[in-house]
Amino acid sequence: MIVSKFGGSSLSNASQFEKVKTIVLNNSERKVVVVSAPGKSREEKHKVTDLLLMCYQLASHKLNFDEVFGIIKKRFKNIVKDLNIKLDIDKELEIIHREIIGGASREFIASRGEYLNAKILANFLDFDFLDAKDIIFIENEKANMEKSFKAINSKIDLEKHYVVPGFYGSGIDSKIKTFSRGGSDISGAIIAAALDAELYENWTDVSGFLTADPKIVLEEQTIKTVTYRELRELSYMGAPVLHEEAIFPVKAEQIPIKILNTNRPQDSGTLILPDESVNCSDNIITGISGKKDFTVIRIEKVFMAEDLSFYRKVLSVFETNDIKIEHMPTSIDTVSFVVASSEIEGKEKKISEEIAIYTSPDNIFISKGLAIIAVVGRGMVSAKGTSAIIFTALAENNINIRMISQGSSEMNIIIGVLNEDFEAAIEAIYKKFKELKK
Question: How high does pLDDT run on average in the chain?
Fold first, then answer.
């Protein structure tokens, strides 16, 4: 059986619902369909979840939210009308309106886009509607897998077909609890894992996972296969398409994920496979991704390695100031801590003083405006000279490398460049590896 998740762009209006219906009914093994709230489209400039959150914000400040709610109401009513289905959407919308007035929680209100979309699609497909609050349980921002698996298997009969709203479940207090934005990917992955699905499909508005950001590399570059580990590395470094936490439930059960395009269902998409099931790629690299706006704190101290407590003391400074360390390249007398600039903003002087008190370094330097780029690929393990290719590509384009770090798995190389060199660096690396492939 197959679990299929459709994102907000796939269900943004009635014509998209028609496409989804054709896809789902084309294969009877698609037993469970998980949906997001309506997203943006050419006609619709706002995501429904954003509009719902705006309603909450206005209501929480005792301000009138009817104008914004009217946009939501019109959108759902148009979908129901255009699909010509018998669903009392006015009643559903009135209940939500009363809940907002009554002071419903932010997470409850944010979840109603998925709830309504699932109601509509279930009616349109003539599938059973199954509320996520009855099968997904969230504790401390994470899914309680054991409790969720048990509920999913008790509620779902694989002789039937279901539509389930994504993004939310029940918290410890039985009230609605949501995952982070984009969390419908996680909902679908949990259901697929619980049911031991043959495949978890993730339908979106792109034809698979791309080697690099299409806003930077302006050409067709879909990856045919990628491993869980590669995807985790690329997603963490900012590559879009799949919520990074959606990998874990299906990885544990060794279930493949397929990224597909609702608007081009004939495209092959990208198949994400367990690491153990994939041989080294014909390509040296699988993908390139990255993020801007990092700060580097570089500490210099002669005989640093002889101070057994040095790293513990420095790390305690970052821990007590609630700053997450992204990377930590080292040399014999130097260590650099790479952190998101947003996390250290306004704390630079305090951090420097505390490090100086704890470790008595020779020098502390803080530099901002760094971009981090990850070059990832299982083919790198057996390929010689991968680093040289990257460095040559950047040198030929007059891009200075500010930091280098390679993971112990030898499957990724992390480089740091200035923010202003970010796009040019990604394009240069992509083109260099493409030339070698020829």
Answer: 90
